Amino acid sequence: MAMKKKDKARDASFVAFVVEQLAPLGEVRSKSMFGGHGVYAGERFFACVDDGRLYFRVDDVTRPRYEARGMGPFTPMPKMVMKSYYEVPVDVIEDAAELARWARDAMAAVPAKKKKGAQPAARKPTRLGAPRQVAKETKAVARRPTRLGAPKKSARAKKRSR
After folding, report:
1. Residue 21: in which H helix or E strand, if any?
2. What is the pTM of this model?
3. Does the pLDDT of residue 20 top 60, yes or no?
4. Residue ranges of domains in the chain, CATH in brackets
5. Which residues are within 8 A (CB) of 30 and not within 5 positions of it... i.e. 6 or more apart?
């Protein structure tokens, strides 16, 4: 169901209010996404706003606090429940200092981002204990086309697979 212009304007003003409340945390911004808004602190995505409600990222430590207040997980569609984000109580949203405390916990619940260029995991050793080595040339030599175009194992490849 498409959101009406009036609802979009209301959501935008609510997002602006939330970002203003979170100003003490530093660089907090929102970004329109998937019909709602994502809230970021730097590059860390820790909250979302959908249908006039604020949801913070949770983990096993912070989730019980939300559940004790009767808050539920983010449900963007009836059969889609995102248990990583829970609704923030209204009284917390209205208290800037309390909201900042909850937001810090939400930011801490965001998993660390993997660094680009990190070393790949070590390969599993073969039965003999030596690491596997697969060269591009070996794959090209291991198979040759048949008359019908289907790949056929070469005698060399057959010996290796025994």
Report:
1. helix 5-21
2. 0.60
3. yes
4. 5-108 (3.30.1460.30), 125-162 (no CATH)
5. 15, 16, 18, 19, 37, 38, 39, 40, 49
